[in-house]
Amino acid sequence: MLCDGRMVCGCADPYGKRPLGDAVIDTVSAIWTGSTASSLRSDINGGGSRFCGDCPLKLPLKKEDAPPQRGLDVGGLPSRLYIECTAACNISCAQACCAPETGITRTRQAGMLDFEVFRRVIDEAGPSLVRVDFFNYGETFLHKRAIEMCEYIKTHFPHIYLYTSTNGLAFKDHDQVRRLVCSGIDEVTFSIDGATPGSYAKYRQRGDFGKAIANLRAAAAAKRAAGRDVPFINWRYILFTHNDSPDEMSLAQAMADEIGVDRLCWELTDHPEDMFSRRFLPGTEALSAIRHQVWDANNLGNAIPGATPRAEIAVQGPLPGLPVLARRGGKATVRASIRNASTRPFPAQASYGRRLVRLGAQLCGPDGTVINRDYERTWLPDTLQPGAAVSVPVTITAPAIPGRYALKFDLVSEGIDWFEACGSPTTTKTLIVI
Ligand SMILES: C[S@@+](CC[C@H](N)C(=O)[O-])C[C@H]1O[C@@H](n2cnc3c(N)ncnc32)[C@H](O)[C@@H]1O
Ligand code: SF4
Fold this sequence. Notes:
Blueprint: E1 6-7, E2 21-22, H1 28-33, H2 35-45, E3 80-82, E4 92-93, H3 115-125, E5 131-133, H4 146-156, E6 161-166, H5 174-181, E7 187-191, H6 197-203, E8 204-205, H7 209-226, E9 232-238, H8 246-259, E10 263-267, H9 285-289, E11 311-316, E12 324-326, E13 331-340, E14 357-364, E15 370-379, E16 389-397, E17 403-413, E18 417-418, E19 427-433
Parallel strand pairs: 3-5, 5-6, 6-7, 7-9, 9-10, 12-19
Antiparallel strand pairs: 1-2, 4-8, 11-13, 13-16, 14-15, 14-17, 17-18, 17-19
Helix pairs in contact: 3-4, 5-7
């Protein structure tokens, strides 16, 4: 939802050129199931839609390829929504389409989202929404009621995963930062591209590095003081030629650790053309060295030294050294020893049921192909502290079809990612079903 209430295809339409409807005059369900959205879905299944115009996400189909088919039964309401509080910004990122001097605000209203429109949309769509991305173009927290909106969402629909990205520069004082932290919001990203004022301001023009860092620090401190496990606080650092030196990146790592943010991640970009980092181009050793710390590579990797989740898992079957044997549909119990080999605890419980860590057993074929990723789950009895180990029994229900299988054991941060995605080793045990 753009700040004027029009609904578009998420961040793919910064200029609001292809509205699906208008939440000021229509219900969300009328827009979601209306003729524009419905024809778009069926046209795309048919190979393309004129509605898409010059959308940069459009990819040509190869002559021999049939258009990929998606189900047309999409229910009455969406499960995910971006909410743009405003398209206005207090700084001016170099050549960004949202920069006030050159960008989208020259072609559409940058004003503030009407609170009543917001409330109507959330009241209607809240029950079906799984996630709200509370940002789009512009700086969300320039809206005077943005924090109240976060509180509204999490008070009325605590099941919604609420996420925002901010430049961290619009908070009037640290009380506002504390209020956001205590709103129940699940995840907050601070966009801070640099570890020194000079390099930071080359992209974040007119940005105040000291203020952004002070607000990041206030957020981390507020979370600690409140004893909360949410929000998860990210420092997201876009790599450019002017901020990608080993010294500056090491400085950011040390600062992130000292401030106590949950995650520091590098973002690789391809724009602006004259700024994006050349040090980390695909295929380089430098990229390989940080591959688990890149924002889009996985959801857990962390550039703070030691903070990337890493576990050592050893699994012992009923007969030491032999495969696990079970009758089809029968039970077998193995014992797993898990050691936390990172510098961050593995939480056994979490607010709203996300980011708690459990042991998962994935059912695989004999060649390792995953048959069922979510085959079994085992809870950790307690938060597993850095360096600590625990031993847990895992009961497995054998598949109905006899044969040779493999069980792959890995930890999973629920709702986020498997540890394997950020390089943590897994353990495999053969399962023979008779
Ligand atoms: C358009 S901004 C809006 C939110 C907020 N104003 C901010 O800067 O975080 C949304 C996201 O785009 C990212 N972004 C900005 N410039 C980018 C670039 N050149 N390449 C990749 N991502 C960029 C920001 O870091 C942010 O996470
Ligand atoms: S701070 Fe965010 S909204 Fe503002 S110009 Fe930069 S990327 Fe765009």
